[in-house]
Each structure stands twice: as C-alpha cells, then as structure tokens.
Amino acid sequence: MSANASVLSITKRLVERSKPTREAYLERTRKAAEEGPNRTVLSCGNLAHGFAACGTHDKEALAGDRVANLGIITAYNDMLSAHQPFETFPAQIREAAREAGGVAQVAGGVPAMCDGVTQGQPGMDLSLFSRDVIALSATVGLSHNMFDAAAYLGVCDKIVPGLVIAALTFGHLPAVFIPAGPMTSGLPNEEKVRIRQLYAEGKVGRAELLEAESKSYHGPGTCTFYGTANSNQMLMELMGFHLPGASFINPGTPLRDALTKEAAKRALAITALGNEYTPAGVMFDERSVINGLVGLHATGGSTNHTMHLIAMARAAGIVLTWEDISELSDLVPLLARVYPNGPSDVNHFHAAGGLGYLISQLLKGGLLHDDVRTVWGEGLADYAIEPKLNDDGSIAREPAPAVSANPKILSTIEKPFQDNGGLKMLTGNLGKSVVKISAVKPERHVIEAPAKVFSSQHALQAAFKAGELDRDFVAVVRFQGPRANGMPELHKMTPPLGVLQDRGFKVALVTDGRMSGASGKVPAAIHVTPEALDEGPIAKLRDGDIIRLDAVEGTLEVLVDEAEFAARAPAKADLTESEHGMGREIFANFRAIAGRADNGASVLYS
C-alpha cells in the first residue's frame, strides 16, 4: 500500500526543501559508518578502560572486533513513575545480549524530569531545555566509540525527543527505543478534572484534591492520559524505532519483559556486523516524519510535538515547518478519542485495538508511507499487529483486529470522529501560533472577545480567585517564550479557564508559552511567535483590545486600527524572578540563544 497523492505531495515538498541539509547529513553518516563502529580503532589502553568493569566473558568478547556491543542510554530514576521500571531493564538487556552472542553496557544516563511535579513551579522553566540537555548527555555517553548499536530507555515528555536527537546525531548506529509502558488505570480522567475544578472554585480542599490526584497517578508506568509521554510512544512506533506492538504494554508483566529482551536482541541483529544493517539516520527519513505526524493528528496528540518533531527532524537534516504540520492535519481524520479528547485512557485505547488497529486503518486510507525502513525490517504494515505471549515465553504477533472493540474510543477511516486532526497553525497580525481543537467543542472554535493581559499564569489565577474574570475575555499570558523564561507549560490556568467556560463565558487563551499534550476544552493559541521578549506583536496588546481566534479559518488577529497598533511601543517585563533559583541561573546562556518556537525552540538548531 502506498500513500495517497495528497500525502505524497507534502512529502515531496519536504524532501525538496530538505535536500541540501539532508544530503550533507547522509554523507556525514556514511563516513561515520565507514570509520566504525568498531573497537579496533581504540588503543589497548582505551579499550581496557572501556571494559574494565565487565565480567570475564564480556571482556573476552570485547577484546576482539566481531562481537556486537550494545550501548544502553538510560533515563532511569525512581521519582518519575514512567521511568522507575527502567531500574531492572539493563540487567534484562545484558542477559538478552549474551543469549544473542553479544554484549551490552550502560553507556550513560540522562536526566529525566517530571513535568507533572514541576507544573507551576520554578523548575518548569528548565523543562523544555532539558530536551537539549538530554541530547547532549546521550552523545557524551556514546562518544566512547565502543558501540555497534544503541538502546534508548526513555518515555516522557522532553526525554524521548532528546534521545531521538542523540540517536540521529549518531545516525550511523542502529537505534532501538525500549518503552516501559503505561501504569494501570486509576481514577477516571473526567472525575479527576471535576475535582480539580471544584478545588479551583474553593469547593473542596487540598486533602480531597490530593486524594483524587493520588488515585489518578498511583503506580509505576506512564501517566495514562494522552499527553506528550504517550504521544512519544505512538511516534516511536509509527516512525519505526519501537518493535511492533511495544508501546502500550503495562510494566512488570511477562509480555513487557519479553518485549524488552526481544528489543535488545533485535538491536544486535541490525548492526553493521550482520546482514541487516539499519543505521538510524538512514532509517529515519522524510517519510518517517510524515508517518509520525499522521499518527499525531489521527490520535489528537501533543502540541509539544509541533516543536519537538521540528527539532528531531533537523537533527537528520530534514527541514519540517508548521505549515507542513497544519496542512497534513487538514488531511488526516481523528480516529481516536483518548483523554483529553475523550474520557478513556491509553489502556482503554490499547484494549480497543490500539496502535495496531490505528495503523491498519491509516494504511487503508492511504495516509501512511508503508515503504519505510524500521528496526523490524521493511514496511510499516508489519506494525498493524497485536502482540501476544506464547506459552514458551516468546512473542506472537497476530494481525490487528479488523473491528474496533470500542467504537467510542477507536473509529474507522470511513467514519472518523472528525474530518481533521485538530492541530492547526494560526497566522495573522499577532504572528504565528498553534491551536489544538480536537477536545474543543465546535461552537468554541471561533472566539472574539476583549483581551485581559497577564505576564504570568499566577497573575491570572489571582485575578480568578479575586472574582475579576467573570466575563467574556481572551487571556493573554505573555513573556513565557523560550528566550524569556524557557517556555514553561502553563497548565495551572486550565482549571480556572475551564470553570469560567462552564459558567457560560466565552474564554480563550493566547500565549507565547506552552500547554502541551494535556491541552483540553478551552481554545488556546499557544507557542505565539515572535515571542514577547523579542518584541513580537503579542507584546503590544493592551487590556480591552478585541482579539479574534478563529480555528476554522486559521487566523489570530487583534482588531485594532493597523496604524495605531504599529505605533504602539512593545511592553517590557521584569523577568528577574525567573532568572535565579532551582538552577535557572546556569541556563541563562540557553535562554539567550534559544530558537523560535516554529524552529523547534532549540539551542542546538536555532
């Protein structure tokens, strides 16, 4: 099966635009492959240091140059629920490597912060930049030139994009991503949201709120809503970095352990020492990027990937734009309803048919490139499966179910939940921005109301608690961009804005900050660029200006006389509070050189 003409047209445009940088990248990758990867280029002293801590068997194996060595990059910590299961993965991977006649070593660890812990806190100002720190940290681990392939252990928000950037920087090495899986289902998402809004209104206390949150986030594994972490897992599968069916198997289960060991063996099978050499930088191409985007739109995935995918693609010499993302969204129907796009979580999604069913439907509709290379082999059709565990502990892959087990969660290509992916670019006299409307009711896709301007989410919360926001308005929260304060997520505003919308007011949000994969029922123009610190038009807005957010036509406008608006001086903000504390002072250089949101908000590819 091949992609339809519309998808092919966007792909062709991406290929043509990227040609100079992609060709240069592939040439560098080819040269790196010719020079290695092998340990014969290391001196005896270098090599002795590299395997000094290994057991006798592994030392003997690594002393030669014909045994594959798998480098493990791990984002393990036991504070982050999604990454806690990784504590035992290196031992499983080493065992699997020995069974396959190879060796595995932990090449390095990378930081992994939890945005759920840092929401509304000073540490959130480091969150976006942690992606590039992770990429840098992983490259240090791989720079020892000891490895023939790499296994990446990561799940959550900035962590997987950072690891992908590193994998593509070492594009001559095969790269297999090994997930940990989602935690089991807890308190239903709609009930969690109800308690949050009651707390915002002062109708329940902190004890009730903490009880609800603890029942929602209750064990090891990924948070079960469809935010950036689970969008990451979908992307890794559709872009071929996961083994088929690996994304949404719960941690601590026999199938999860079997998939982990199988992934290690597969990584060793696709090195340059064998007959299936699959370098990550060649495997990941323009078609892979388009497939990932199609999956993002079809599932109502995270808005963070309007930046992460651009940065990831750039690492492989591919020049992706918001225009590509928005145009593709108009072609791809929404086939999944997973919170915040619906009440169900990723476990329900998986039980309804999961990614295997989704991929089969998208292939049927001609929306995916099947003719891609993956870590499993040739063709994405191999991923239209459902993994099962055989009696002997091996993995069986059965064809994905032909019919959704729950049509309220997973629909068909013929009867989608909506005709587009709901992730659109907005343009107008306030610059460029992104809006996610897959969870927004159609009657709220166009909002025209007076602006109420804030310089922090905390100021908006204070105004809400003071009863100053019981009206129609567009909340403008500015000086939240990459260069201002690291572009934190602003989810502390979600409950009060949701309360006001439920009271019958027309409300919307315009910000140069982020809302991410948990963006919900309130229309929000986010990632506004140029940001306020760069004297973007958002810095000229004043209380009372009429703003029109039109997610149907794809526009974001302030309805002020053009000459008057042009003559206004941009506002300034005192950002000293966000320059120090919780390590923010040592990220000053990152803020100074950060790229624009529509270029990936990166310090590596600005």
UniProtKB/TrEMBL annotation:
<dbReference type="InterPro" id="IPR042096">
    <property type="entry name" value="Dihydro-acid_dehy_C"/>
</dbReference>
<feature type="binding site">
    <location>
        <position position="223"/>
    </location>
    <ligand>
        <name>[4Fe-4S] cluster</name>
    </ligand>
</feature>
<comment type="pathway">
    <text>Carbohydrate metabolism; Entner-Doudoroff pathway.</text>
</comment>
<dbReference type="Pfam" id="PF00920">
    <property type="entry name" value="ILVD_EDD_N"/>
</dbReference>
<feature type="domain" description="Dihydroxy-acid/6-phosphogluconate dehydratase C-terminal">
    <location>
        <begin position="408"/>
        <end position="601"/>
    </location>
</feature>
<keyword id="KW-0004">4Fe-4S</keyword>
<dbReference type="Pfam" id="PF24877">
    <property type="entry name" value="ILV_EDD_C"/>
</dbReference>
<keyword id="KW-0311">Gluconate utilization</keyword>
<keyword id="KW-0408">Iron</keyword>
<feature type="binding site">
    <location>
        <position position="156"/>
    </location>
    <ligand>
        <name>[4Fe-4S] cluster</name>
    </ligand>
</feature>
<dbReference type="InterPro" id="IPR004786">
    <property type="entry name" value="6-phosphgluc_deHydtase"/>
</dbReference>
<dbReference type="InterPro" id="IPR020558">
    <property type="entry name" value="DiOHA_6PGluconate_deHydtase_CS"/>
</dbReference>
<protein>
    <recommendedName>
        <fullName>Phosphogluconate dehydratase</fullName>
        <ecNumber>4.2.1.12</ecNumber>
    </recommendedName>
</protein>
<keyword id="KW-0119">Carbohydrate metabolism</keyword>
<keyword id="KW-0479">Metal-binding</keyword>
<comment type="similarity">
    <text>Belongs to the IlvD/Edd family.</text>
</comment>
<feature type="domain" description="Dihydroxy-acid/6-phosphogluconate dehydratase N-terminal">
    <location>
        <begin position="69"/>
        <end position="382"/>
    </location>
</feature>
<keyword id="KW-0411">Iron-sulfur</keyword>
<keyword id="KW-0456">Lyase</keyword>
<dbReference type="InterPro" id="IPR056740">
    <property type="entry name" value="ILV_EDD_C"/>
</dbReference>
<dbReference type="InterPro" id="IPR000581">
    <property type="entry name" value="ILV_EDD_N"/>
</dbReference>
<comment type="function">
    <text>Catalyzes the dehydration of 6-phospho-D-gluconate to 2-dehydro-3-deoxy-6-phospho-D-gluconate.</text>
</comment>
<dbReference type="GO" id="GO:0004456">
    <property type="term" value="F:phosphogluconate dehydratase activity"/>
</dbReference>
<dbReference type="InterPro" id="IPR037237">
    <property type="entry name" value="IlvD/EDD_N"/>
</dbReference>
